[in-house]
Amino acid sequence: MGKKLGKIVICLSISIIFSLADNDKVYSQSILETNKAIIESKNNEEKNQPSEETKEKPKKRYVQTSWNINTLYKSDEEWNKELKDFNKDSKELKNYIGKVTKSKTHLVFALDIKENLDIRMNKLCAYVKLKQDINKNSYKYLNMNDTLDKVYRDYVSICSDLELEVLKLSNKEYKEIISNNKINRKYGMYLDNIRRSKKYYLDDKSEDLLEHVSPIASLPGQVYELFRNMDKKTNLNPSEYASALESPNRQERKSAYQGEFIAYNDNINTLGGLLVGQVKKNAFYSNQRGYKSSLEMYLQSDDINEKVYDKLIETVSKNTSSLHKYVSLRKQVLNLDKLYYYDMFVPLVSPVDNDITYEKAQGIIYSALSPLGKEYGDILYKAFNERWVDVYSNENKVSGAYCLSVYDNHPYILTNYNNTLNSVSTLAHELGHAAYEYMSSKNQNYFNSNPSIFTHEVASTTNEALLYEVLIKNASNPKEKAYYITQYLDLIKNTLYLQTMYAEFEKTIHEMVEKGESVNSLVLDDVWGQLLKKYYGKDYELDQLAKVGWSRIPHFYNSFYVYKYATGCSAGVSFAQYILSNGSDAYINFLKQGSSDYPTKLLKEAGVDLTTTKPIEDTIKKFDSLVKELEKTLSK
């Protein structure tokens, strides 16, 4: 971790909970992912995730379904005291600069100190983050953020200097150090993450120059967020827009769609310039560091072979017929002459239950996840009864959903529960992240306890897949069964198919820029439009406005990230099928491994090999079988 050596995770960010590596910081994977909050949109469509707002619950009930942050610090005053103590204690680690690789003893002492400081910083960041998100209008926690920011950055600088010493060791010196079993067992993955980037490290002067350019390089993403959150003018907020797209009134859907997309279209040249700027920045850094491409640079942190990325796109692209069939079925069921973008979200079957209380949701989740065994069920019990979850919406709370893990504590889950099946699915999804982190931390030391985002998506999707499997199996009538099938289909459509489409778009425009081709908003529109037709098929009507959909995807400013949703979905659906047939032992063991090895190796040992196309093909087969089952059920 550090300014020159990895992901600088700014734990004080409000809009982005975890920070992906900037292109000038692509060395080691950060251990101190202090804001390891996995904010995800369960529906990773072009639309925004609904905020799931609902009426504020009675105060007594809300208290019982809100976080107990006192497990971190009993008061703001205690937090302030700990921050001062941390700042003072970090000087002990600073004393090791220039000495950390002097001997194995020096290295062990330094890393032991760093481990303790990392855990403390993790808690400091988590406390402010959690307090902010349930007091979003409070300047008090903004000020605490500012105070923490200075201490955090100073600490990052110390860690960066220490890691640089490890990076500069000769191969012979490094092998001598890592041959020590104690060092290898506890710190091996952390050190290896640093060393794998050795060949991409430039000389000190060049590194210093790139570091100073970093604030400029981050401007495309920053400006995009300013537009999206402040300058974009529409009549509907994200929650209202999502609701309108699900309206049975087609004119309401169309009006909402046009209002949203026109706001982007009116600024399309600016937005095109920002995205091309992001791509050119990636191309610059990958070229300077000696990577073959921007894609290789971004896959390096998880030790992912480019073939995994390419095979994902290739396999899904060759198997879009089931998705085409589903789109055609949608057109038929809705009785439409033409199917447009704004017709893709209205439910094909009316929801069977719009009043699933939180208490009932717990019962559904216990039942659905029971195949994972007693140990997993005990974690769910802790989450529900030890106040891991802040459940309901209120005016001072942020929208959306996420899980934030805190080592040597329990994870914290934020939802805005609104009694719908979508909320139940969101809760199951976030509990997947929480259980994964909890099991990792209980079975691994700190340096091996932070799973990558790549495998995190597996844990969350497995839970959702199990949820829908159980609901479909136990449906009491054809309408109920059809509704649950459509929800499972949309999970796979939005997470496997569309995230792969996004990944293909991202790869295509990077390759164009890296070849020196001219790319502007018109080119981006054209590439996006062709992909929409490719993935959705002949019954999808492509209008001009839909072509600007690329401009609405904030993930493109966290480059080469979206593919992880797709691989996570294929692995999660594969795990769910295996668990229901063969039990959960291999999967539970996978969860306990944390980050003790690289993602694809851990998954392969658990029975899901993402270096092959089998998990993707199996998920596509599952999608196809669900489409056929839906057709059969709707005909009854």
From TrEMBL:
Domain of life of the organism encoding this protein: Bacteria
Cofactor note: Binds 1 zinc ion.
Residues in Oligopeptidase F N-terminal domain copies: 165-231
Stretches assigned to the Peptidase M3A/M3B catalytic domain: 245-620
EC number: 3.4.24.-
ATP-binding among keywords: no
Cofactor(s) essential for the protein: Zn(2+)
Family: Belongs to the peptidase M3B family.
Name by which UniProt lists this protein: Oligopeptidase F
Organism: Romboutsia lituseburensis DSM 797
